[in-house]
Amino acid sequence: GDKSLTGNSLPGLSLGPRTHVQAGPLPKPTLWAEPGSVITQGSPVTLRCQGSLETQEYHLYREKKTVLWITRIPQELVKKGQFPIPSITWEHAGRYRCYYGSHTAGRSESSDPLELVVTGFYNKPTLSAQPSPVVASGENMTVQCDSQVAFHGFTLCKEGEDEHPQCLNSQLHAHGSSRAIFSVGPVSSSRRWSYRCYGYDLSSPYEWSSPSDLLELLVPGVSKKPSLSVQPGPVVAPEESLTLQCGSDVGYDRFVLYKDGERDFLQLPGWQPQAGLSQANFTLGPVSRSHGGQYRCYGAHNVSSEWSAPSDPLDILITGQTPARPSLSVQPGPTVASGENVTLLCQSWQQFHTFLLTKAGAADAPLHLRSTQKSPQYQAEFPMSPVTSAHAGTYSCYGSWSSNPYLLTHPSEPLELVVSGGGLDPVLSELKGSAQALPQESSGLGWSERGSERGSARGGLTLRGKEENGALPGLPTLRGITSIMDRRGG
């Protein structure tokens, strides 16, 4: 055939989409690939050429190097502009154009180029969003493609719900690189933002690696935030399981759960426990230290790609991350009248940034207090004033570090708080009033001067440690503090 029609006589010519070679009066045809132009090796694909004439003949050619497979297509398909490939290989990859014509109207100009890419020739790279896949509407996003082997170039492809991938090439590296950085956006909450990346070598630029796993960006919207809760509670030991429940009263059809700093998020369909309510239960476990962190969830309706505003954050804390454990004790002593001021004291010989206090069976977040040094120990005082029956229960305390606040020590020995009956004897009430008028220690530990009235109260609050005799863990330490304060003139 006439080589001038194949493009092979012009190996260096690369026609951009705006370059028109007027080869005749016929407008250029459209060339596309079904299901797409980026195809996994071994998969089928069909190239389609569509012109403007009713009766015409179609011609497909590859730039720079002819291919034999086109000549084997049955003529009845060629007349329809269909060029199927049952199982694509590296030999099919390349840059194609098509044209059409007839004996009367002559030849059309060539179509815009179609780059047919075959993937699966190298191991897949890893695609991640920096610093997080959660990005605010209107902002740009940095995504990073990393590979174990060096490539001359990387390509990032955006995958839409109903469109062919839109791809972006990285800068080329003559000696190869194992990383490429792309900027995408500005993003909006009204559509989905899903990406894959690939690596390739310049010697075969249409033969790409296997695709990375899909990276989906989460762009929070403004619709009503769901609620996020945890069962049995936010403080969990290694190997245990927990369930994070994302729920809403606006009937979302699907939910995602995202942990700060993670590469991706979990997505589940919602279900309706009752009319108007929807929820999803995300089960985590058996947990390890990597599960510790801050979580949020989002909801969406199926008819929209838009996510809701984020839920309030929920911290999941993993215990047992050091052999150390603090001790938990009570001030002013093992028995106090209800309505009194009570302080739980968490202490440790080892330095911690924060102490946390939990109550068994409570799904609430633990109380946090910064550690203070009371030589030779570190401690935090958790006040409960005035104490009521609602404070009854079993308490534990933990230490944590600033380097990872979601990892905790083993728990202290549990401390049981038993709250009994009501008021004080009238005379004792007067005594109590005068005792409170005495100067207090600035530390808030000034309870030694009020100890004499304790046992006489009709109602009381009793704390029991694990020991059968009712002794409290850490009481010797407390007595030590008492005597120190007495010496100070407390």
Automatic annotation (TrEMBL):
Top-level lineage group: Eukaryota
Disulfide bond residue pairs: 49-98, 145-197
PROSITE patterns linked: IG_LIKE
Feature: compositional bias, Polar residues: 1-11
Domain Ig-like: 27-115
Disordered: annotated span: 1-27, 439-490
GO cellular component: plasma membrane
Pfam families documented for this protein: ig, Ig_2, Ig_3
Assigned keywords, A-Z: Adaptive immunity, Disulfide bond, Glycoprotein, Immunity, Immunoglobulin domain, Repeat, Signal
GO biological process per UniProt: adaptive immune response; immune response-regulating signaling pathway; interleukin-10-mediated signaling pathway
A single GO molecular function term of this UniProt record: inhibitory MHC class I receptor activity
Record function comment: May act as receptor for class I MHC antigens.
The name this protein goes by in its record: Ig-like domain-containing protein
Organism from which the protein derives: Pan troglodytes
